[in-house]
Write a structure and sequence with these properties.
alpha/beta; two-stranded antiparallel ribbon; 10 strands; Rossmann fold
Length: about 400
Amino acid sequence: MGSSLSSRSGKRCILPAVFGGIVIILGLFGCSENPIGVEERQPAVVAQVTAPIHMIGQLPARWNGSVVVYAHGFVPAIVPLAIPSEAAQFGELAMSSGFAFATTSYPENGMCIPEALADIVSLVEEFKAEYPQTQKVFLIGASMGGLVAAQAAERHPETFDGVLALCGVYGNYTVESGYIANFRVIFDYFFPGVLPGDAITVDLATMLQWESVYMPNVQAELSNPANTGKIRQLLAVTKLPVNASDPASVANAIIEVLFMQIFATEDVRLRLGGYPYGNRYVRYSGSDNDRALNAGVQRFSADPVALLAAQRLFGTTGRLQIPLVSMHGTGDNLVPIIQQLLYRTKIFLARKSRLYTGIPVNSYGHCQFQEQQILNGFGLLVSKVTGVLPQLTSTGGDGSVCISCK
Protein backbone atom coordinates (compact mmCIF):
# COMPACT_ATOMS: atom_id res chain seq x y z
CA MET A 1 0.00 0.00 0.00
CA GLY A 2 2.96 2.31 0.29
CA SER A 3 3.83 2.70 -3.39
CA SER A 4 4.23 6.24 -4.69
CA LEU A 5 1.69 8.11 -6.76
CA SER A 6 2.74 10.11 -9.78
CA SER A 7 1.64 13.75 -9.55
CA ARG A 8 2.70 17.27 -10.40
CA SER A 9 4.93 17.42 -7.38
CA GLY A 10 6.03 13.80 -7.50
CA LYS A 11 5.22 12.74 -3.92
CA ARG A 12 2.19 12.09 -1.79
CA CYS A 13 1.07 12.18 1.81
CA ILE A 14 -0.18 8.94 3.35
CA LEU A 15 -2.52 8.75 6.29
CA PRO A 16 -1.97 5.78 8.58
CA ALA A 17 -4.71 3.18 8.62
CA VAL A 18 -5.60 4.19 12.17
CA PHE A 19 -5.24 7.81 13.35
CA GLY A 20 -5.51 7.01 17.04
CA GLY A 21 -6.54 10.57 17.86
CA ILE A 22 -3.38 12.12 16.39
CA VAL A 23 -3.90 15.67 15.19
CA ILE A 24 -2.06 16.15 11.92
CA ILE A 25 -0.63 19.62 11.41
CA LEU A 26 1.24 20.29 8.20
CA GLY A 27 2.77 23.71 8.51
CA LEU A 28 4.91 26.03 6.46
CA PHE A 29 7.11 23.26 5.15
CA GLY A 30 4.30 20.88 4.22
CA CYS A 31 4.46 17.32 5.58
CA SER A 32 7.51 16.53 7.65
CA GLU A 33 9.16 13.16 8.16
CA ASN A 34 7.51 11.63 11.21
CA PRO A 35 6.39 8.33 12.74
CA ILE A 36 2.89 8.41 11.25
CA GLY A 37 4.15 8.02 7.71
CA VAL A 38 3.36 11.40 6.18
CA GLU A 39 5.65 12.61 3.40
CA GLU A 40 5.78 16.06 1.87
CA ARG A 41 4.30 16.86 -1.50
CA GLN A 42 5.54 20.40 -1.79
CA PRO A 43 6.33 23.23 0.65
CA ALA A 44 3.39 25.57 1.21
CA VAL A 45 3.96 29.31 0.86
CA VAL A 46 1.87 31.85 2.72
CA ALA A 47 -0.82 33.54 0.60
CA GLN A 48 0.39 31.97 -2.64
CA VAL A 49 -0.98 29.29 -4.92
CA THR A 50 1.15 26.17 -4.81
CA ALA A 51 0.82 22.43 -5.26
CA PRO A 52 -1.85 21.14 -2.89
CA ILE A 53 -1.06 18.71 -0.11
CA HIS A 54 -2.92 15.49 -0.93
CA MET A 55 -3.36 12.86 1.73
CA ILE A 56 -4.46 9.34 0.84
CA GLY A 57 -4.95 6.80 3.60
CA GLN A 58 -3.70 3.26 3.47
CA LEU A 59 -6.58 0.91 2.79
CA PRO A 60 -8.44 -0.46 5.82
CA ALA A 61 -7.83 -4.13 6.58
CA ARG A 62 -11.37 -4.89 5.39
CA TRP A 63 -11.83 -2.34 2.62
CA ASN A 64 -15.36 -2.23 1.24
CA GLY A 65 -14.21 -0.84 -2.09
CA SER A 66 -15.42 2.73 -1.48
CA VAL A 67 -13.61 5.92 -0.50
CA VAL A 68 -14.63 8.95 1.55
CA VAL A 69 -13.13 12.24 0.35
CA TYR A 70 -13.18 15.23 2.72
CA ALA A 71 -13.47 18.89 1.60
CA HIS A 72 -12.51 21.25 4.42
CA GLY A 73 -13.83 24.69 5.27
CA PHE A 74 -12.51 28.24 5.03
CA VAL A 75 -8.92 28.92 6.03
CA PRO A 76 -7.60 32.52 5.89
CA ALA A 77 -5.55 33.26 2.79
CA ILE A 78 -2.58 34.43 4.87
CA VAL A 79 -2.22 31.04 6.61
CA PRO A 80 0.18 28.39 5.21
CA LEU A 81 -1.35 25.43 3.41
CA ALA A 82 -2.03 22.46 5.66
CA ILE A 83 -4.32 19.51 6.07
CA PRO A 84 -6.96 20.64 8.61
CA SER A 85 -6.83 18.92 11.98
CA GLU A 86 -10.40 17.60 11.82
CA ALA A 87 -9.44 15.51 8.77
CA ALA A 88 -7.96 12.99 11.21
CA GLN A 89 -11.36 12.56 12.85
CA PHE A 90 -13.17 12.12 9.54
CA GLY A 91 -10.49 9.72 8.38
CA GLU A 92 -10.83 7.63 11.49
CA LEU A 93 -14.62 7.59 11.14
CA ALA A 94 -14.36 6.46 7.52
CA MET A 95 -11.68 3.82 7.94
CA SER A 96 -13.19 2.32 11.10
CA SER A 97 -16.20 1.43 8.94
CA GLY A 98 -14.20 -0.04 6.07
CA PHE A 99 -14.00 3.02 3.80
CA ALA A 100 -10.74 4.34 2.40
CA PHE A 101 -10.07 8.03 3.01
CA ALA A 102 -8.49 10.94 1.15
CA THR A 103 -8.34 14.69 1.63
CA THR A 104 -6.48 17.78 0.45
CA SER A 105 -5.30 21.19 1.58
CA TYR A 106 -6.53 22.70 -1.72
CA PRO A 107 -3.96 24.57 -3.84
CA GLU A 108 -4.62 27.80 -1.92
CA ASN A 109 -6.50 29.14 1.08
CA GLY A 110 -9.29 31.69 1.22
CA MET A 111 -12.65 31.46 -0.56
CA CYS A 112 -11.11 29.30 -3.28
CA ILE A 113 -14.30 27.50 -4.33
CA PRO A 114 -13.51 26.80 -8.02
CA GLU A 115 -9.93 25.85 -7.19
CA ALA A 116 -11.03 23.58 -4.34
CA LEU A 117 -13.58 21.78 -6.51
CA ALA A 118 -11.06 21.17 -9.30
CA ASP A 119 -8.52 19.92 -6.75
CA ILE A 120 -11.02 17.53 -5.13
CA VAL A 121 -11.78 16.05 -8.56
CA SER A 122 -8.05 15.71 -9.19
CA LEU A 123 -7.62 13.97 -5.83
CA VAL A 124 -10.25 11.39 -6.76
CA GLU A 125 -8.55 10.75 -10.09
CA GLU A 126 -5.29 10.27 -8.22
CA PHE A 127 -6.89 7.85 -5.79
CA LYS A 128 -8.46 5.81 -8.59
CA ALA A 129 -5.14 5.66 -10.42
CA GLU A 130 -3.66 4.07 -7.29
CA TYR A 131 -6.69 1.88 -6.58
CA PRO A 132 -8.50 1.22 -9.88
CA GLN A 133 -10.79 -1.30 -8.17
CA THR A 134 -12.55 1.58 -6.37
CA GLN A 135 -16.33 1.16 -6.53
CA LYS A 136 -17.96 4.24 -4.97
CA VAL A 137 -16.74 7.75 -4.09
CA PHE A 138 -18.48 9.67 -1.30
CA LEU A 139 -17.69 13.35 -0.69
CA ILE A 140 -18.10 14.99 2.71
CA GLY A 141 -17.76 18.78 2.81
CA ALA A 142 -17.98 21.04 5.86
CA SER A 143 -18.65 24.78 6.03
CA MET A 144 -17.04 26.26 2.88
CA GLY A 145 -16.40 22.65 1.93
CA GLY A 146 -20.17 22.13 2.09
CA LEU A 147 -20.51 24.56 -0.82
CA VAL A 148 -17.73 22.73 -2.68
CA ALA A 149 -19.60 19.47 -2.06
CA ALA A 150 -22.92 20.88 -3.32
CA GLN A 151 -21.28 22.14 -6.50
CA ALA A 152 -19.72 18.70 -6.95
CA ALA A 153 -23.15 17.07 -6.68
CA GLU A 154 -24.47 19.39 -9.37
CA ARG A 155 -21.50 19.30 -11.75
CA HIS A 156 -19.51 16.07 -11.36
CA PRO A 157 -21.70 12.95 -11.37
CA GLU A 158 -18.91 11.19 -13.25
CA THR A 159 -16.60 11.59 -10.25
CA PHE A 160 -18.81 11.28 -7.17
CA ASP A 161 -21.61 8.92 -6.21
CA GLY A 162 -23.02 10.81 -3.25
CA VAL A 163 -22.40 13.92 -1.15
CA LEU A 164 -22.81 14.81 2.53
CA ALA A 165 -22.79 18.60 2.95
CA LEU A 166 -22.35 19.86 6.50
CA CYS A 167 -23.20 23.42 7.64
CA GLY A 168 -22.41 24.80 4.19
CA VAL A 169 -22.93 28.07 2.32
CA TYR A 170 -24.85 26.18 -0.38
CA GLY A 171 -28.07 28.20 -0.37
CA ASN A 172 -26.97 31.67 -1.43
CA TYR A 173 -23.51 33.16 -0.92
CA THR A 174 -24.64 36.78 -1.14
CA VAL A 175 -27.12 36.13 1.68
CA GLU A 176 -24.25 34.77 3.78
CA SER A 177 -21.87 37.63 2.94
CA GLY A 178 -24.68 40.07 3.74
CA TYR A 179 -25.25 38.40 7.10
CA ILE A 180 -21.56 38.72 8.00
CA ALA A 181 -21.27 42.31 6.75
CA ASN A 182 -24.48 43.38 8.49
CA PHE A 183 -23.11 42.02 11.73
CA ARG A 184 -19.97 44.14 11.34
CA VAL A 185 -22.06 47.23 10.53
CA ILE A 186 -24.13 46.84 13.69
CA PHE A 187 -21.09 45.93 15.80
CA ASP A 188 -19.34 49.11 14.66
CA TYR A 189 -22.40 51.17 15.60
CA PHE A 190 -22.50 49.90 19.18
CA PHE A 191 -18.72 49.54 19.57
CA PRO A 192 -17.19 52.31 17.44
CA GLY A 193 -13.43 52.30 17.02
CA VAL A 194 -12.86 48.82 18.44
CA LEU A 195 -11.98 47.40 15.01
CA PRO A 196 -10.28 49.26 12.18
CA GLY A 197 -11.75 49.30 8.69
CA ASP A 198 -15.41 48.62 8.04
CA ALA A 199 -17.83 46.02 6.74
CA ILE A 200 -16.25 45.85 3.28
CA THR A 201 -12.68 47.00 3.93
CA VAL A 202 -10.11 45.19 6.06
CA ASP A 203 -6.36 45.69 5.72
CA LEU A 204 -3.57 43.17 6.18
CA ALA A 205 -2.35 44.77 9.41
CA THR A 206 -5.71 44.09 11.04
CA MET A 207 -5.51 40.43 10.08
CA LEU A 208 -1.96 40.08 11.32
CA GLN A 209 -2.83 41.71 14.66
CA TRP A 210 -6.18 39.99 15.16
CA GLU A 211 -5.04 37.59 17.87
CA SER A 212 -2.60 39.95 19.59
CA VAL A 213 -4.58 43.21 19.54
CA TYR A 214 -8.07 43.24 18.09
CA MET A 215 -9.58 40.01 19.38
CA PRO A 216 -8.48 40.89 22.95
CA ASN A 217 -10.04 44.34 22.45
CA VAL A 218 -13.32 42.75 21.41
CA GLN A 219 -13.17 40.33 24.35
CA ALA A 220 -12.60 43.22 26.74
CA GLU A 221 -15.66 45.05 25.41
CA LEU A 222 -17.82 41.95 25.64
CA SER A 223 -16.73 41.20 29.20
CA ASN A 224 -17.35 44.76 30.42
CA PRO A 225 -20.59 44.78 32.50
CA ALA A 226 -21.27 48.32 31.30
CA ASN A 227 -21.79 46.97 27.78
CA THR A 228 -24.52 44.46 28.64
CA GLY A 229 -27.18 46.65 27.03
CA LYS A 230 -25.14 47.10 23.86
CA ILE A 231 -24.59 43.35 23.54
CA ARG A 232 -28.29 42.71 24.06
CA GLN A 233 -29.13 45.14 21.25
CA LEU A 234 -26.40 43.77 18.97
CA LEU A 235 -27.89 40.28 19.28
CA ALA A 236 -31.45 41.53 18.82
CA VAL A 237 -30.69 43.51 15.66
CA THR A 238 -28.45 40.95 13.98
CA LYS A 239 -30.54 37.92 15.04
CA LEU A 240 -27.30 36.10 15.84
CA PRO A 241 -28.18 32.57 17.02
CA VAL A 242 -26.73 32.13 20.51
CA ASN A 243 -27.25 30.00 23.58
CA ALA A 244 -28.36 32.75 25.95
CA SER A 245 -27.96 30.44 28.95
CA ASP A 246 -24.20 30.22 28.31
CA PRO A 247 -22.58 33.70 28.44
CA ALA A 248 -19.18 32.39 27.34
CA SER A 249 -20.68 30.87 24.21
CA VAL A 250 -22.35 34.21 23.39
CA ALA A 251 -18.97 35.95 23.34
CA ASN A 252 -17.47 33.14 21.28
CA ALA A 253 -20.33 33.35 18.77
CA ILE A 254 -19.75 37.09 18.31
CA ILE A 255 -15.99 36.70 17.94
CA GLU A 256 -16.37 33.87 15.43
CA VAL A 257 -18.49 36.03 13.11
CA LEU A 258 -16.05 38.94 13.44
CA PHE A 259 -13.16 36.54 12.70
CA MET A 260 -14.81 35.57 9.43
CA GLN A 261 -15.47 39.20 8.51
CA ILE A 262 -11.88 40.18 9.22
CA PHE A 263 -10.26 37.31 7.31
CA ALA A 264 -12.66 36.71 4.41
CA THR A 265 -13.63 40.20 3.30
CA GLU A 266 -10.53 41.27 1.39
CA ASP A 267 -10.04 37.80 -0.04
CA VAL A 268 -13.59 37.81 -1.43
CA ARG A 269 -13.16 41.34 -2.78
CA LEU A 270 -10.06 40.30 -4.72
CA ARG A 271 -11.71 37.18 -6.14
CA LEU A 272 -14.95 38.90 -7.17
CA GLY A 273 -13.56 42.23 -8.31
CA GLY A 274 -15.55 44.06 -5.65
CA TYR A 275 -17.75 43.25 -2.67
CA PRO A 276 -21.31 41.89 -3.12
CA TYR A 277 -22.86 43.64 -0.12
CA GLY A 278 -25.15 46.59 0.11
CA ASN A 279 -27.37 47.97 2.88
CA ARG A 280 -28.35 51.26 1.31
CA TYR A 281 -32.07 50.55 1.74
CA VAL A 282 -31.98 48.19 4.70
CA ARG A 283 -33.92 49.26 7.76
CA TYR A 284 -32.61 47.70 10.96
CA SER A 285 -34.80 46.98 13.96
CA GLY A 286 -34.50 45.51 17.43
CA SER A 287 -32.47 48.21 19.17
CA ASP A 288 -33.64 50.54 21.92
CA ASN A 289 -33.72 53.39 19.40
CA ASP A 290 -34.12 52.17 15.82
CA ARG A 291 -34.40 55.72 14.45
CA ALA A 292 -30.94 56.59 15.78
CA LEU A 293 -29.57 53.23 14.69
CA ASN A 294 -30.69 53.61 11.08
CA ALA A 295 -29.45 57.18 10.96
CA GLY A 296 -26.07 56.26 12.42
CA VAL A 297 -24.98 53.01 10.73
CA GLN A 298 -22.61 53.02 7.79
CA ARG A 299 -24.21 52.49 4.41
CA PHE A 300 -22.78 50.65 1.41
CA SER A 301 -23.81 49.78 -2.16
CA ALA A 302 -23.22 46.34 -3.58
CA ASP A 303 -20.81 46.10 -6.51
CA PRO A 304 -22.84 44.73 -9.47
CA VAL A 305 -19.76 43.07 -10.94
CA ALA A 306 -19.15 41.27 -7.65
CA LEU A 307 -22.78 40.14 -7.44
CA LEU A 308 -22.52 38.48 -10.85
CA ALA A 309 -19.12 36.97 -10.03
CA ALA A 310 -20.43 35.59 -6.72
CA GLN A 311 -23.18 33.72 -8.53
CA ARG A 312 -20.74 32.40 -11.13
CA LEU A 313 -17.99 31.31 -8.72
CA PHE A 314 -19.82 30.64 -5.45
CA GLY A 315 -23.30 29.81 -6.70
CA THR A 316 -25.46 26.69 -6.78
CA THR A 317 -28.46 25.83 -8.93
CA GLY A 318 -30.13 22.97 -7.07
CA ARG A 319 -29.87 20.81 -10.18
CA LEU A 320 -28.51 17.77 -8.37
CA GLN A 321 -27.25 14.85 -10.42
CA ILE A 322 -26.39 12.53 -7.52
CA PRO A 323 -27.83 12.08 -4.01
CA LEU A 324 -27.02 14.81 -1.50
CA VAL A 325 -27.70 14.84 2.24
CA SER A 326 -27.24 18.12 4.07
CA MET A 327 -26.95 18.57 7.83
CA HIS A 328 -27.20 21.99 9.43
CA GLY A 329 -27.36 23.22 13.02
CA THR A 330 -30.51 25.14 13.92
CA GLY A 331 -28.40 27.54 16.00
CA ASP A 332 -25.42 27.92 13.67
CA ASN A 333 -24.06 31.40 14.36
CA LEU A 334 -21.65 31.60 11.43
CA VAL A 335 -23.66 30.01 8.60
CA PRO A 336 -27.31 30.23 9.70
CA ILE A 337 -29.71 27.42 8.84
CA ILE A 338 -31.42 29.67 6.27
CA GLN A 339 -28.75 28.31 3.89
CA GLN A 340 -30.30 24.84 4.12
CA LEU A 341 -33.77 26.24 3.55
CA LEU A 342 -32.64 28.28 0.53
CA TYR A 343 -30.92 25.28 -1.01
CA ARG A 344 -33.96 23.09 -0.43
CA THR A 345 -36.01 25.68 -2.37
CA LYS A 346 -33.56 25.64 -5.28
CA ILE A 347 -33.70 21.85 -5.40
CA PHE A 348 -37.50 21.87 -5.32
CA LEU A 349 -37.67 24.38 -8.18
CA ALA A 350 -35.17 22.27 -10.13
CA ARG A 351 -37.40 19.22 -9.55
CA LYS A 352 -34.56 17.29 -7.94
CA SER A 353 -36.12 16.71 -4.52
CA ARG A 354 -35.90 12.92 -4.88
CA LEU A 355 -32.09 13.25 -4.68
CA TYR A 356 -32.07 15.47 -1.59
CA THR A 357 -32.48 15.00 2.14
CA GLY A 358 -32.04 17.94 4.51
CA ILE A 359 -31.48 17.21 8.20
CA PRO A 360 -31.76 20.08 10.72
CA VAL A 361 -29.72 19.35 13.86
CA ASN A 362 -30.66 20.94 17.17
CA SER A 363 -27.37 22.58 18.17
CA TYR A 364 -25.70 25.93 18.79
CA GLY A 365 -22.44 27.02 17.18
CA HIS A 366 -20.94 26.50 13.75
CA CYS A 367 -20.70 22.91 12.54
CA GLN A 368 -21.35 21.46 15.98
CA PHE A 369 -22.19 17.81 15.39
CA GLN A 370 -21.83 14.65 17.41
CA GLU A 371 -20.03 11.73 15.84
CA GLN A 372 -23.19 9.63 15.82
CA GLN A 373 -25.12 12.37 14.04
CA ILE A 374 -22.55 12.44 11.25
CA LEU A 375 -22.59 8.64 11.06
CA ASN A 376 -26.38 8.72 10.77
CA GLY A 377 -26.27 11.28 7.99
CA PHE A 378 -23.54 9.44 6.14
CA GLY A 379 -25.33 6.12 6.55
CA LEU A 380 -28.46 7.64 5.03
CA LEU A 381 -26.41 8.90 2.09
CA VAL A 382 -24.81 5.51 1.48
CA SER A 383 -28.23 3.84 1.58
CA LYS A 384 -29.59 6.32 -0.97
CA VAL A 385 -26.68 5.50 -3.29
CA THR A 386 -26.45 1.73 -2.82
CA GLY A 387 -29.90 0.78 -1.57
CA VAL A 388 -28.32 -0.85 1.48
CA LEU A 389 -28.01 0.66 4.96
CA PRO A 390 -24.33 0.26 5.91
CA GLN A 391 -22.95 -0.97 9.22
CA LEU A 392 -20.99 2.05 10.49
CA THR A 393 -18.66 1.90 13.46
CA SER A 394 -18.11 4.63 16.04
CA THR A 395 -14.51 5.48 16.89
CA GLY A 396 -15.22 5.32 20.60
CA GLY A 397 -14.00 8.87 21.23
CA ASP A 398 -15.73 11.64 23.19
CA GLY A 399 -18.55 11.76 20.64
CA SER A 400 -17.88 15.19 19.13
CA VAL A 401 -16.32 16.10 15.80
CA CYS A 402 -14.57 19.47 16.00
CA ILE A 403 -14.95 20.97 12.52
CA SER A 404 -14.80 24.64 13.49
CA CYS A 405 -11.98 24.55 16.05
CA LYS A 406 -9.53 27.42 15.68
